[in-house]
Amino acid sequence: MAEALLQIENLKMHFPVYKGALIRKEVNRVRAVDGLNFNIFKGETLGLVGESGCGKSTTGRSIIQLYRPTEGTVKFDGKDLTKLSKSELHPYRRDLQMIFQDPYASLNPRMTVGDIISEPLKVHNLATGGIQKRVQELMETTGLDPRFIRRYPHEFSGGQRQRIGIARALASEPKFIVCDEPISALDVSIQAQVINLMEDLQKDFGLTYLFIAHDLAAVRQISDRIAVMYLGKMVELADGEEMYAHPTHPYTQALISAVPIPDPEVEATRERIVLAGDVPSPLNPPTGCVFHTRCPFAYERCKKEVPEFQEAGPGHFVACHLVDEPERRKDAPNAPNDREKRAAIAAMNNAIKSGGLDKSEEE
Ligand SMILES: Nc1ncnc2c1ncn2[C@@H]1O[C@H](COP(=O)(O)OP(=O)(O)OP(=O)(O)O)[C@@H](O)[C@H]1O
Ligand code: SF4
Ligand SMILES: [Mg+2]
User: Given 3-state DSSP classes, what are the helix, strand and coil percentages for the chain, each rounded to the nearest 5?
Assistant: First the structure.
């Protein structure tokens, strides 16, 4: 049985919305993350996917306590981080790091690479053998030329800047890193190199990752397990292979059918599960199952009852009433037929086989 590094229970992060200039009054809440229950195992990469605004970044930030959650517990090595004061949390900050989507925006343009990477060393009183030596070691580990220690972020390419971000995250010798869309801002030709580097570092340093991305194809290579979010909720969680072989939640099935296929002929003839309408606002999420306004299988119960996030198969969790009432799938008037669903999953597998990431050299 895999050992949990993080145990997340009923995690909620609501952002209050205020009105009034003089007397501020809370009038509503953005339910960015609304009751998540899952574990992250030691040494694994858990991929987290979902459409823009579904709460992926907020989840990552709430886990490492960059945001202090509204409700719930986040146990790290058995200790509930949400109960700790700022000073009690300080030593844990070393273990919990983050890599950001836009390496340029997340690096201070007025600081040299040396200053950027040495910051966590100073904050946590590390590198007693010499800060410069340690920074250069970290630069080498992440594939940067240590002679460039006095250069500024703008003097590096996008891929190299992301390496600086990774070196900074590694400096405090963390156990867990939230990787928030670390490759989406990079050229396709560079993405594979950054992924390969992250995989090597994970092996060498025994790291655990939460790897956030917009779509399922982007997390397939790196993830051991995959979690799918929709409007602040986790709707499905399974082993990577299992998720592609048996996507069970209607939203996951739709996401899989939307993955672009590199072959234009296959792309032109494929069938997709198109979801009706837009993602509702997290200010006013739908009652019952939050996906019911767009789900092709929705029925009466879905409007009233929140589906439990339950184990539908070994290690395969799904939040959908169809787990209890599978016969409803066949009866649903708007449901995609089996042929469409099979075509969507086959298309996804083809996309992965024929696409892959371009492995050309970084300049
Ligand atoms: N600091 C904040 N204050 C108020 N609302 C916020 C804040 N941060 C995020 N939100 C809202 O919470 C919801 C979830 O945002 P979040 O950034 O976590 O989504 P995401 O899944 O990471 O999206 P993207 O894929 O675009 O990065 C959004 O509706 C967003 O507008
Ligand atoms: S609970 Fe109902 S609305 Fe929600 S995903 Fe399942 S079938 Fe669709
Ligand atoms: Mg985000």
Answer: 35, 25, 40
Q: Do residues 17 and 26 make contact, with C-beta atoms less than 8 angstroms apart? A: yes
User: Distance between the two ends of the chain, CA-based, in angstroms?
Assistant: 43
Q: Give yes or no for residue 148 having a pLDDT over 60.
A: yes
Which of 8-12, 184-188, 231-235 has the least mean pLDDT?
A: 184-188
Contact assessment for residue 177 and residue 98, using Cβ atoms and an 8 Å cutoff: yes
The average pLDDT across 151-177 equals 95
The model carries a pTM of 0.91
Ligand 2 center to 321 CA (angstroms): 6
Q: Which helix (H) or strand (E) holds 200?
A: helix 188-205
Domain end: 116, 141, 173, which one?
Answer: 173
Ligand 1 atom at minimal distance to the Cα of residue 54: 21
Domain boundary among 135, 156, 173: 173
Phi, psi angles (nearest 5°) of residue 40: -120, 125
Tell whether ligand 1 has an atom less than 6 A from the beta carbon of residue 67.
Answer: no
